[in-house]
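idk why but the lab printer keeps eating my pages so im just putting this in chat instead. protein + BES:
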Amino acid sequence: MQNIKQYISQNKDRFLKELIELLKIPSISADSAFSQDVLDTAEAVKKSLEKAGCDLVEIHETDGYPIVYGEKLIDPNLPTVLVYGHYDVQPPDPVDLWNSPPFEPIIKKTELHPDGAIFARGACDDKGQMYMHVKALEFMVNTDQLPCNVKFMIEGEEEVGSNNLSTYVSLNKEKLKNDIILISDTGMIANDVPSITTGLRGLSYVEVEVTGPNRDLHSGLYGGAVANPINILAKMIASLHDGNNHITIPGFYDTVQELSDEERAEMAKAPFSLEAYQKALDIDSDYGEKGYTTNERNSIRPTLDVNGIWGGYIGEGAKTVIASKAYAKISMRLVPNQDWREITELFKQHFEAIAPKGVKVKVKPHHGGQGYVTPIDTDGYQAASKAYETTFGKKPIPQRSGGSIPIVSLFEKELDSKTILMGFGLDSDAIHSPNEHFGVWNYLKGIETIPYFFQYFTEMKKSC
Ligand code: BES
Ligand code: MN
Ligand code: MN
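predcted complex ->
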Protein backbone atom coordinates (compact mmCIF):
# COMPACT_ATOMS: atom_id res chain seq x y z
CA MET A 1 0.00 0.00 0.00
CA GLN A 2 1.62 3.17 -1.14
CA ASN A 3 1.32 6.38 0.83
CA ILE A 4 -1.20 5.09 3.35
CA LYS A 5 0.51 6.74 6.30
CA GLN A 6 0.90 9.96 4.35
CA TYR A 7 -2.74 9.89 3.19
CA ILE A 8 -3.92 9.44 6.76
CA SER A 9 -1.78 12.21 8.19
CA GLN A 10 -2.91 14.61 5.44
CA ASN A 11 -6.59 13.79 5.92
CA LYS A 12 -6.92 12.91 9.57
CA ASP A 13 -8.60 16.14 10.63
CA ARG A 14 -11.26 15.65 7.98
CA PHE A 15 -11.63 11.95 8.91
CA LEU A 16 -12.34 13.02 12.48
CA LYS A 17 -14.67 15.83 11.47
CA GLU A 18 -16.75 13.53 9.27
CA LEU A 19 -17.09 10.93 12.02
CA ILE A 20 -18.06 13.62 14.51
CA GLU A 21 -20.88 14.76 12.19
CA LEU A 22 -22.16 11.19 11.98
CA LEU A 23 -22.01 10.80 15.75
CA LYS A 24 -24.17 13.89 16.26
CA ILE A 25 -27.24 12.09 14.89
CA PRO A 26 -28.90 10.12 17.72
CA SER A 27 -29.66 6.91 15.81
CA ILE A 28 -31.13 5.04 18.79
CA SER A 29 -32.90 2.04 17.29
CA ALA A 30 -34.51 0.97 20.59
CA ASP A 31 -36.48 4.20 21.04
CA SER A 32 -39.13 5.07 18.45
CA ALA A 33 -38.88 8.76 19.39
CA PHE A 34 -35.63 8.75 17.42
CA SER A 35 -36.89 6.97 14.30
CA GLN A 36 -36.33 9.99 12.04
CA ASP A 37 -32.74 10.24 13.31
CA VAL A 38 -32.15 6.59 12.53
CA LEU A 39 -33.43 7.16 8.98
CA ASP A 40 -31.31 10.33 8.64
CA THR A 41 -28.25 8.34 9.67
CA ALA A 42 -28.93 5.79 6.94
CA GLU A 43 -28.99 8.68 4.43
CA ALA A 44 -25.74 10.08 5.82
CA VAL A 45 -24.06 6.66 5.51
CA LYS A 46 -25.34 6.37 1.95
CA LYS A 47 -23.83 9.75 1.02
CA SER A 48 -20.53 8.85 2.65
CA LEU A 49 -20.27 5.63 0.64
CA GLU A 50 -21.04 7.48 -2.59
CA LYS A 51 -18.38 10.07 -1.81
CA ALA A 52 -15.85 7.40 -0.87
CA GLY A 53 -16.14 5.83 -4.32
CA CYS A 54 -18.89 3.20 -4.38
CA ASP A 55 -20.42 2.90 -7.85
CA LEU A 56 -23.81 1.96 -6.53
CA VAL A 57 -25.37 2.76 -3.18
CA GLU A 58 -28.95 1.88 -2.32
CA ILE A 59 -31.18 2.13 0.70
CA HIS A 60 -32.94 -1.20 1.03
CA GLU A 61 -36.18 -1.08 2.98
CA THR A 62 -37.03 -3.82 5.49
CA ASP A 63 -39.93 -4.19 7.90
CA GLY A 64 -37.77 -2.23 10.33
CA TYR A 65 -34.95 0.24 9.70
CA PRO A 66 -33.33 0.15 6.27
CA ILE A 67 -30.07 -1.41 5.21
CA VAL A 68 -27.52 0.70 3.37
CA TYR A 69 -26.07 -1.36 0.55
CA GLY A 70 -23.06 -0.18 -1.44
CA GLU A 71 -20.70 -1.73 -3.94
CA LYS A 72 -17.70 -1.16 -6.11
CA LEU A 73 -17.21 -4.10 -8.41
CA ILE A 74 -14.06 -3.85 -10.47
CA ASP A 75 -13.61 -7.32 -11.94
CA PRO A 76 -15.75 -10.47 -11.64
CA ASN A 77 -12.58 -12.58 -11.58
CA LEU A 78 -11.30 -10.90 -8.45
CA PRO A 79 -12.45 -11.79 -4.94
CA THR A 80 -15.22 -9.85 -3.19
CA VAL A 81 -15.06 -8.57 0.37
CA LEU A 82 -18.40 -7.86 2.08
CA VAL A 83 -18.12 -5.26 4.84
CA TYR A 84 -20.84 -5.39 7.50
CA GLY A 85 -21.43 -2.79 10.19
CA HIS A 86 -24.27 -1.02 11.98
CA TYR A 87 -25.27 2.63 12.08
CA ASP A 88 -27.69 2.34 15.00
CA VAL A 89 -26.56 2.92 18.58
CA GLN A 90 -27.61 2.00 22.10
CA PRO A 91 -29.68 4.44 24.16
CA PRO A 92 -27.31 6.76 26.07
CA ASP A 93 -29.03 6.20 29.44
CA PRO A 94 -28.24 7.00 32.17
CA VAL A 95 -27.53 10.41 30.63
CA ASP A 96 -26.65 11.96 34.02
CA LEU A 97 -23.52 9.86 34.20
CA TRP A 98 -22.03 11.28 30.99
CA ASN A 99 -19.33 13.90 31.49
CA SER A 100 -20.36 15.52 28.18
CA PRO A 101 -23.60 15.15 26.19
CA PRO A 102 -23.69 11.78 24.36
CA PHE A 103 -24.54 13.30 20.97
CA GLU A 104 -22.15 16.25 21.16
CA PRO A 105 -18.88 14.49 20.42
CA ILE A 106 -15.69 15.84 21.95
CA ILE A 107 -12.09 14.69 21.84
CA LYS A 108 -10.37 14.26 25.20
CA LYS A 109 -7.13 12.58 26.27
CA THR A 110 -7.30 9.58 28.60
CA GLU A 111 -4.69 7.40 30.24
CA LEU A 112 -5.12 4.67 27.64
CA HIS A 113 -5.64 7.13 24.78
CA PRO A 114 -2.88 9.74 25.09
CA ASP A 115 -3.59 10.95 21.52
CA GLY A 116 -7.19 11.62 22.51
CA ALA A 117 -10.44 9.72 22.22
CA ILE A 118 -13.77 10.73 20.71
CA PHE A 119 -16.46 10.67 23.40
CA ALA A 120 -19.98 10.04 22.05
CA ARG A 121 -22.59 7.28 21.95
CA GLY A 122 -21.64 5.06 19.00
CA ALA A 123 -18.05 6.34 18.80
CA CYS A 124 -16.75 2.77 19.09
CA ASP A 125 -19.95 0.71 18.72
CA ASP A 126 -20.21 0.93 15.82
CA LYS A 127 -20.20 4.20 13.91
CA GLY A 128 -16.49 4.85 14.46
CA GLN A 129 -15.47 1.33 13.54
CA MET A 130 -17.85 1.16 10.58
CA TYR A 131 -16.61 4.50 9.27
CA MET A 132 -13.00 3.24 9.24
CA HIS A 133 -14.08 1.04 6.34
CA VAL A 134 -15.60 3.96 4.46
CA LYS A 135 -12.35 5.91 4.82
CA ALA A 136 -10.23 2.88 3.92
CA LEU A 137 -12.29 2.57 0.74
CA GLU A 138 -11.80 6.27 0.02
CA PHE A 139 -8.04 5.80 0.32
CA MET A 140 -7.95 2.72 -1.93
CA VAL A 141 -10.14 4.33 -4.59
CA ASN A 142 -8.41 7.73 -4.57
CA THR A 143 -4.95 6.22 -4.83
CA ASP A 144 -6.00 3.59 -7.36
CA GLN A 145 -5.15 0.73 -5.04
CA LEU A 146 -8.46 -1.10 -4.60
CA PRO A 147 -7.30 -4.67 -5.31
CA CYS A 148 -10.67 -6.46 -5.41
CA ASN A 149 -14.44 -6.01 -5.36
CA VAL A 150 -16.09 -4.60 -2.30
CA LYS A 151 -19.66 -4.61 -1.00
CA PHE A 152 -21.06 -2.82 2.04
CA MET A 153 -24.04 -3.80 4.09
CA ILE A 154 -24.65 -1.39 6.96
CA GLU A 155 -27.73 -2.09 9.06
CA GLY A 156 -29.76 -0.07 11.55
CA GLU A 157 -31.17 -2.68 13.91
CA GLU A 158 -28.14 -4.47 15.33
CA GLU A 159 -28.61 -3.11 18.82
CA VAL A 160 -32.18 -4.40 18.94
CA GLY A 161 -31.48 -7.90 17.67
CA SER A 162 -31.32 -7.54 13.84
CA ASN A 163 -34.82 -8.95 13.56
CA ASN A 164 -35.28 -8.21 9.86
CA LEU A 165 -31.82 -9.12 8.71
CA SER A 166 -32.22 -12.85 8.21
CA THR A 167 -35.12 -12.28 5.79
CA TYR A 168 -33.08 -9.63 3.98
CA VAL A 169 -30.04 -11.89 3.71
CA SER A 170 -31.99 -14.90 2.47
CA LEU A 171 -33.79 -12.75 -0.14
CA ASN A 172 -30.55 -11.15 -1.36
CA LYS A 173 -28.12 -14.06 -1.45
CA GLU A 174 -26.92 -13.28 -4.96
CA LYS A 175 -26.42 -9.58 -4.30
CA LEU A 176 -24.51 -10.29 -1.09
CA LYS A 177 -22.38 -13.07 -2.57
CA ASN A 178 -18.79 -12.73 -1.39
CA ASP A 179 -15.53 -14.51 -0.61
CA ILE A 180 -15.14 -13.14 2.88
CA ILE A 181 -17.07 -10.96 5.31
CA LEU A 182 -15.19 -8.27 7.18
CA ILE A 183 -16.55 -6.71 10.37
CA SER A 184 -15.10 -4.15 12.76
CA ASP A 185 -17.51 -4.29 15.68
CA THR A 186 -15.40 -5.98 18.37
CA GLY A 187 -12.29 -5.09 20.33
CA MET A 188 -8.64 -5.96 20.81
CA ILE A 189 -6.55 -6.62 23.91
CA ALA A 190 -4.56 -3.36 24.02
CA ASN A 191 -3.02 -0.88 21.63
CA ASP A 192 0.33 -2.64 21.99
CA VAL A 193 -1.24 -6.13 22.09
CA PRO A 194 -3.20 -6.48 18.86
CA SER A 195 -5.67 -9.35 18.67
CA ILE A 196 -8.21 -10.71 16.23
CA THR A 197 -11.56 -11.93 17.49
CA THR A 198 -12.07 -15.59 16.61
CA GLY A 199 -15.25 -16.24 18.53
CA LEU A 200 -18.46 -14.62 19.69
CA ARG A 201 -20.97 -15.87 22.20
CA GLY A 202 -24.57 -16.59 21.35
CA LEU A 203 -27.43 -15.04 23.23
CA SER A 204 -30.84 -15.84 24.62
CA TYR A 205 -32.67 -12.86 26.07
CA VAL A 206 -35.86 -13.30 28.07
CA GLU A 207 -38.18 -11.29 30.25
CA VAL A 208 -39.98 -12.83 33.21
CA GLU A 209 -43.08 -11.71 35.04
CA VAL A 210 -44.15 -12.98 38.45
CA THR A 211 -47.70 -12.20 39.55
CA GLY A 212 -48.95 -12.63 43.10
CA PRO A 213 -52.19 -11.07 44.37
CA ASN A 214 -54.47 -9.33 41.87
CA ARG A 215 -53.61 -5.85 43.25
CA ASP A 216 -50.95 -4.06 45.26
CA LEU A 217 -51.55 -4.67 48.97
CA HIS A 218 -50.83 -2.96 52.29
CA SER A 219 -47.68 -4.71 53.50
CA GLY A 220 -48.90 -4.64 57.09
CA LEU A 221 -52.38 -5.98 56.52
CA TYR A 222 -51.31 -8.70 54.10
CA GLY A 223 -47.56 -9.03 54.67
CA GLY A 224 -46.49 -12.53 55.67
CA ALA A 225 -49.74 -14.08 54.54
CA VAL A 226 -49.47 -13.89 50.72
CA ALA A 227 -46.64 -14.63 48.34
CA ASN A 228 -44.72 -11.42 47.64
CA PRO A 229 -43.78 -11.55 43.93
CA ILE A 230 -40.58 -9.56 44.50
CA ASN A 231 -39.41 -11.87 47.30
CA ILE A 232 -40.30 -14.88 45.17
CA LEU A 233 -38.61 -13.53 42.04
CA ALA A 234 -35.42 -12.81 44.01
CA LYS A 235 -35.45 -16.37 45.38
CA MET A 236 -36.10 -17.90 41.98
CA ILE A 237 -33.29 -15.91 40.38
CA ALA A 238 -30.89 -16.78 43.19
CA SER A 239 -31.61 -20.47 42.64
CA LEU A 240 -30.45 -20.29 39.01
CA HIS A 241 -26.80 -20.59 40.16
CA ASP A 242 -25.41 -23.13 42.63
CA GLY A 243 -22.63 -22.64 45.16
CA ASN A 244 -20.00 -23.08 42.43
CA ASN A 245 -21.74 -20.55 40.22
CA HIS A 246 -22.84 -23.23 37.83
CA ILE A 247 -26.18 -22.62 36.17
CA THR A 248 -28.81 -24.98 37.56
CA ILE A 249 -31.18 -25.20 34.58
CA PRO A 250 -31.37 -28.92 33.70
CA GLY A 251 -29.72 -29.61 30.34
CA PHE A 252 -28.14 -26.14 30.12
CA TYR A 253 -24.59 -27.45 29.66
CA ASP A 254 -25.46 -30.56 27.63
CA THR A 255 -24.23 -29.25 24.27
CA VAL A 256 -21.48 -26.90 25.49
CA GLN A 257 -18.29 -27.37 23.51
CA GLU A 258 -15.53 -27.98 26.04
CA LEU A 259 -12.03 -26.80 25.18
CA SER A 260 -9.10 -29.19 25.38
CA ASP A 261 -6.35 -28.59 27.95
CA GLU A 262 -4.08 -27.52 25.08
CA GLU A 263 -6.58 -24.96 23.86
CA ARG A 264 -7.00 -23.61 27.37
CA ALA A 265 -3.24 -23.42 27.85
CA GLU A 266 -2.97 -21.51 24.57
CA MET A 267 -5.65 -19.09 25.73
CA ALA A 268 -3.87 -18.52 29.02
CA LYS A 269 -0.85 -17.15 27.13
CA ALA A 270 -2.68 -13.93 26.27
CA PRO A 271 -1.40 -11.14 28.49
CA PHE A 272 -3.84 -10.42 31.31
CA SER A 273 -3.53 -8.90 34.76
CA LEU A 274 -6.30 -9.79 37.17
CA GLU A 275 -5.04 -7.05 39.46
CA ALA A 276 -5.35 -4.36 36.78
CA TYR A 277 -8.75 -5.76 35.78
CA GLN A 278 -10.04 -5.50 39.35
CA LYS A 279 -8.53 -2.06 39.81
CA ALA A 280 -10.14 -0.72 36.63
CA LEU A 281 -13.56 -1.88 37.85
CA ASP A 282 -12.95 -1.05 41.51
CA ILE A 283 -13.79 -4.56 42.70
CA ASP A 284 -11.87 -6.47 45.35
CA SER A 285 -12.24 -9.97 43.94
CA ASP A 286 -13.00 -11.88 40.83
CA TYR A 287 -16.22 -13.90 40.74
CA GLY A 288 -17.67 -16.62 38.59
CA GLU A 289 -17.90 -20.24 37.66
CA LYS A 290 -15.59 -22.47 39.69
CA GLY A 291 -12.73 -24.03 37.78
CA TYR A 292 -12.35 -21.32 35.16
CA THR A 293 -10.24 -18.19 34.81
CA THR A 294 -11.62 -14.70 34.25
CA ASN A 295 -10.81 -14.84 30.54
CA GLU A 296 -12.47 -18.23 30.23
CA ARG A 297 -15.52 -17.12 32.16
CA ASN A 298 -16.08 -14.21 29.82
CA SER A 299 -15.54 -15.99 26.53
CA ILE A 300 -15.73 -19.79 26.39
CA ARG A 301 -18.28 -20.35 29.16
CA PRO A 302 -22.01 -19.68 29.07
CA THR A 303 -23.59 -17.27 31.56
CA LEU A 304 -26.90 -16.17 32.99
CA ASP A 305 -27.26 -12.57 34.17
CA VAL A 306 -30.11 -10.37 35.29
CA ASN A 307 -29.95 -7.17 33.23
CA GLY A 308 -32.77 -5.37 34.96
CA ILE A 309 -35.24 -6.06 37.76
CA TRP A 310 -38.21 -4.04 38.88
CA GLY A 311 -41.46 -4.00 40.73
CA GLY A 312 -43.08 -2.32 43.73
CA TYR A 313 -42.37 1.17 44.98
CA ILE A 314 -39.12 2.81 43.88
CA GLY A 315 -40.03 6.49 44.29
CA GLU A 316 -38.77 8.84 46.99
CA GLY A 317 -39.31 7.93 50.61
CA ALA A 318 -41.00 4.77 51.82
CA LYS A 319 -44.30 3.22 50.81
CA THR A 320 -45.47 0.11 52.62
CA VAL A 321 -46.69 -2.11 49.84
CA ILE A 322 -46.65 -5.63 48.49
CA ALA A 323 -46.65 -5.31 44.74
CA SER A 324 -48.87 -7.43 42.58
CA LYS A 325 -46.11 -8.01 40.03
CA ALA A 326 -42.33 -8.27 39.71
CA TYR A 327 -40.24 -8.41 36.57
CA ALA A 328 -36.72 -9.16 35.38
CA LYS A 329 -34.82 -9.12 32.11
CA ILE A 330 -32.33 -11.94 31.85
CA SER A 331 -29.60 -12.61 29.30
CA MET A 332 -27.87 -15.90 28.77
CA ARG A 333 -24.62 -15.75 26.84
CA LEU A 334 -24.12 -19.00 25.00
CA VAL A 335 -21.16 -20.79 23.53
CA PRO A 336 -20.78 -23.16 20.58
CA ASN A 337 -22.77 -25.53 20.16
CA GLN A 338 -25.63 -24.37 22.35
CA ASP A 339 -28.74 -23.64 20.35
CA TRP A 340 -30.36 -20.41 21.52
CA ARG A 341 -33.93 -21.56 20.83
CA GLU A 342 -33.35 -24.77 22.76
CA ILE A 343 -31.81 -22.88 25.69
CA THR A 344 -34.70 -20.40 25.70
CA GLU A 345 -37.11 -23.34 25.93
CA LEU A 346 -35.08 -25.00 28.73
CA PHE A 347 -35.11 -21.73 30.66
CA LYS A 348 -38.86 -21.33 30.24
CA GLN A 349 -39.63 -24.87 31.37
CA HIS A 350 -37.33 -24.61 34.37
CA PHE A 351 -38.47 -21.16 35.46
CA GLU A 352 -42.10 -22.19 35.31
CA ALA A 353 -41.32 -25.42 37.16
CA ILE A 354 -39.60 -23.70 40.10
CA ALA A 355 -42.42 -21.18 40.68
CA PRO A 356 -43.94 -21.87 44.09
CA LYS A 357 -47.67 -22.07 44.67
CA GLY A 358 -49.17 -18.63 45.22
CA VAL A 359 -47.64 -16.93 42.16
CA LYS A 360 -48.06 -17.17 38.41
CA VAL A 361 -45.01 -16.95 36.15
CA LYS A 362 -44.72 -15.82 32.54
CA VAL A 363 -41.58 -16.09 30.45
CA LYS A 364 -41.41 -13.94 27.35
CA PRO A 365 -38.53 -14.65 24.94
CA HIS A 366 -37.01 -11.53 23.36
CA HIS A 367 -34.27 -12.20 20.85
CA GLY A 368 -31.31 -14.45 20.49
CA GLY A 369 -28.62 -15.76 18.24
CA GLN A 370 -26.00 -18.41 17.81
CA GLY A 371 -22.37 -18.16 18.89
CA TYR A 372 -19.51 -18.34 16.44
CA VAL A 373 -15.94 -19.62 16.26
CA THR A 374 -13.70 -19.31 13.29
CA PRO A 375 -10.60 -21.34 12.49
CA ILE A 376 -7.30 -19.48 12.03
CA ASP A 377 -5.90 -21.57 9.21
CA THR A 378 -7.97 -19.80 6.56
CA ASP A 379 -6.90 -17.26 3.93
CA GLY A 380 -9.11 -14.69 5.61
CA TYR A 381 -7.54 -15.06 9.04
CA GLN A 382 -4.02 -15.23 7.64
CA ALA A 383 -4.57 -12.07 5.57
CA ALA A 384 -5.91 -10.25 8.61
CA SER A 385 -3.02 -11.46 10.74
CA LYS A 386 -0.50 -10.24 8.17
CA ALA A 387 -2.27 -6.88 7.92
CA TYR A 388 -1.97 -6.34 11.70
CA GLU A 389 1.65 -7.47 11.60
CA THR A 390 2.34 -4.83 8.95
CA THR A 391 0.73 -1.91 10.76
CA PHE A 392 1.25 -2.85 14.43
CA GLY A 393 4.65 -4.46 13.95
CA LYS A 394 3.43 -7.47 15.96
CA LYS A 395 1.59 -10.66 15.22
CA PRO A 396 -1.97 -10.42 16.57
CA ILE A 397 -3.27 -12.93 19.12
CA PRO A 398 -6.42 -14.88 18.23
CA GLN A 399 -8.95 -14.32 20.99
CA ARG A 400 -12.55 -15.35 21.62
CA SER A 401 -14.80 -12.54 22.77
CA GLY A 402 -17.74 -12.63 25.13
CA GLY A 403 -19.98 -10.31 23.12
CA SER A 404 -22.51 -11.32 20.51
CA ILE A 405 -23.12 -10.44 16.88
CA PRO A 406 -25.82 -12.97 16.01
CA ILE A 407 -25.73 -12.16 12.32
CA VAL A 408 -22.28 -13.72 11.96
CA SER A 409 -23.49 -17.32 12.31
CA LEU A 410 -26.39 -16.51 10.05
CA PHE A 411 -24.00 -15.25 7.36
CA GLU A 412 -22.14 -18.53 7.51
CA LYS A 413 -25.37 -20.49 7.14
CA GLU A 414 -27.03 -18.37 4.45
CA LEU A 415 -24.07 -17.08 2.45
CA ASP A 416 -21.64 -19.89 3.19
CA SER A 417 -18.84 -17.46 4.02
CA LYS A 418 -16.53 -16.95 6.94
CA THR A 419 -16.33 -13.70 8.86
CA ILE A 420 -13.16 -11.93 9.92
CA LEU A 421 -13.64 -9.80 13.02
CA MET A 422 -11.10 -6.99 12.89
CA GLY A 423 -12.06 -4.91 15.92
CA PHE A 424 -10.02 -1.92 17.03
CA GLY A 425 -11.87 -0.91 20.22
CA LEU A 426 -10.73 -1.58 23.78
CA ASP A 427 -12.87 -3.17 26.51
CA SER A 428 -12.38 0.02 28.49
CA ASP A 429 -13.97 2.15 25.73
CA ALA A 430 -17.27 1.86 27.62
CA ILE A 431 -19.52 0.65 24.80
CA HIS A 432 -23.18 0.56 25.93
CA SER A 433 -22.11 2.58 29.01
CA PRO A 434 -21.95 6.28 29.82
CA ASN A 435 -18.90 8.04 28.33
CA GLU A 436 -18.40 5.65 25.42
CA HIS A 437 -15.30 6.62 23.49
CA PHE A 438 -12.99 5.47 20.71
CA GLY A 439 -9.29 6.26 20.57
CA VAL A 440 -8.21 8.58 17.76
CA TRP A 441 -5.12 6.38 17.39
CA ASN A 442 -7.38 3.28 17.12
CA TYR A 443 -9.60 4.93 14.53
CA LEU A 444 -6.65 5.88 12.35
CA LYS A 445 -4.91 2.52 12.90
CA GLY A 446 -8.04 0.79 11.67
CA ILE A 447 -8.11 2.92 8.53
CA GLU A 448 -4.46 2.03 7.98
CA THR A 449 -4.84 -1.72 8.58
CA ILE A 450 -7.98 -2.42 6.52
CA PRO A 451 -6.43 -1.73 3.06
CA TYR A 452 -3.66 -4.24 3.86
CA PHE A 453 -6.30 -6.86 4.56
CA PHE A 454 -7.77 -6.21 1.12
CA GLN A 455 -4.35 -6.46 -0.48
CA TYR A 456 -3.18 -9.63 1.29
CA PHE A 457 -6.52 -11.39 0.94
CA THR A 458 -6.59 -10.69 -2.80
CA GLU A 459 -2.99 -11.93 -3.19
CA MET A 460 -3.75 -15.14 -1.29
CA LYS A 461 -6.88 -15.82 -3.32
CA LYS A 462 -5.02 -15.19 -6.60
CA SER A 463 -2.24 -17.60 -5.71
CA CYS A 464 -4.60 -20.51 -5.11
N1 BES B 1 -20.53 -4.68 18.89
C1 BES B 1 -21.32 -5.35 19.86
C2 BES B 1 -20.85 -6.76 20.15
C3 BES B 1 -19.43 -6.92 20.63
C4 BES B 1 -18.74 -5.93 21.28
C5 BES B 1 -18.83 -8.13 20.42
C6 BES B 1 -17.44 -6.13 21.71
C7 BES B 1 -17.54 -8.34 20.86
C8 BES B 1 -16.84 -7.33 21.50
C9 BES B 1 -22.77 -5.37 19.39
O1 BES B 1 -23.19 -4.11 18.94
C10 BES B 1 -23.66 -5.71 20.55
O2 BES B 1 -23.77 -4.90 21.42
N2 BES B 1 -24.29 -6.88 20.54
C11 BES B 1 -25.22 -7.22 21.55
C12 BES B 1 -26.15 -8.30 21.07
C13 BES B 1 -27.30 -7.82 20.23
C14 BES B 1 -28.17 -8.99 19.82
C15 BES B 1 -28.13 -6.77 20.91
C16 BES B 1 -24.53 -7.76 22.76
O3 BES B 1 -23.46 -8.39 22.67
O4 BES B 1 -25.07 -7.54 23.85
MN1 MN C 1 -21.81 -3.27 17.67
MN1 MN D 1 -23.60 -2.85 20.73
